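Protocol step 4 of 6: structure prediction from sequence.
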Amino acid sequence: MKILLTGSTGYIGKRLLISLLDEGYEVVCCVRDAKRFNPSEAIIEKVEIIEVDLLDKQSLKQVPKDIDGAYYLVHSMSSSSDYKSLEQQCAVNFREAMNSTEVKHVMYLSGIVNETDLSEHLSSRKNVEIELEKGNYHLTTLRAGIIIGSGSASFEIIRDLVEKLPIMITPKWLNTKCQPIGIKDVISFLSKGIFNSKTFNHNFDIGGPDVLSYKEMLLGFAKERNLKRKIWTVPVMTPKLSSYWLYFVTSTSYKLASSLVDSMKIEVVCRDHKINKILQITPISYQKALELAFARIKNNDVLSSWKDAYASSGLTDSISDFIEVPTFGCFKDVRDREVLDNEQCIQKIWSIGGETGWYSGNWLWKLRGYLDKFVGGVGLRRGRTNPDTIHAGDALDFWRVLYANKQEGRLLLFAEMKLPGEAWLEFKIENNKLIQTATFRPLGVLGRAYWYAVFPFHGFIFKGMIRNITKI
């Protein structure tokens, strides 16, 4: 059986792919940018990869006609202020593409939409479901609330709040009820539901056994981490203030924070649990989901993270659009230094950022991160998903990995911080020498003024960086 998997580079898609292959399915991975698709070589050999942009009908012609099933795991919650119309158009284009194939069953992962008044985000998810229902195939919609797992947006936001703030004065929406579900169970529902005729043309709510307020979830997280936390809710925080509060304390972008605050005022509790019996799944508790998430983190085994999604920065272009570093009209800081141990040098480069830092002037990098966060940028809080591996498309503090090849000894980063221009940082080993290049393409007079303002710090930061990376 052949399955089309959209969102193959996303948080859910990366994990579902492994489950589908384990079940013996033939999988066609539908990605917008193939350079961001970086599974293991064992997986690459088993899948077919096609580049598709759901907003581009022409690209959808690449979808094989002989697919039997498909997963719709696409959303644009924080990539655009007009995401509602974009999501609807994506759904229409996908439906029309599916109608020209042999697909029998489509599964869509949505949000719980049981309230009369929905947030814009949940309303958009519902509209997508309505569009997908019009197709010439059987549709199954699984509606989930808060998903808890290593690297999930909800988990990371809760983690930021609890681990950074011993005392919290919080908005009243922390008393809203929700029904969290572990990522392990989400993957089970998705993989076991495909081609099950009992799920055809129905929608189901999926959730764990616990109905909790967001405040109870924070305190439950604190309990798992053996932390004492005090939380008070106040009615004076407007949605805008709440969004800023979430944005400055956590690693989320402001657009995503606004969408989350809007949705967190709505109860997301399951209507029933019929799907559990149909698929013979008993979801784990919230505390167990936290336990499994931390086990993954402890073992450096985080399979996917929302921070690597473009939504974490608001980037809407493909990384391919930036992989060619410009030369005309640019400022450059180029340094080179002899490498005495290539293997050790490459390992240092591949460990850069996150907990390791940037090998020189870390306090200046942190200051730049705080300033970036203050003006609406991503700051340094995203860190890195894995301390040892880097792949194209990964987030790395306030950079995006454009190219990463250990055998070549080359790493290319693109800046996602707020800048009056565009910036690249490249590390490349050639003839036992490390070449470190910082490139800045200014935007107008302000961009040039910015370069000269930070130029005095470059000598200290970049000189120390290459020295510390190459020394034994």
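Step 5 (inspection) to follow. The domain at 2-301 is CATH 3.40.50.720 (Rossmann fold).
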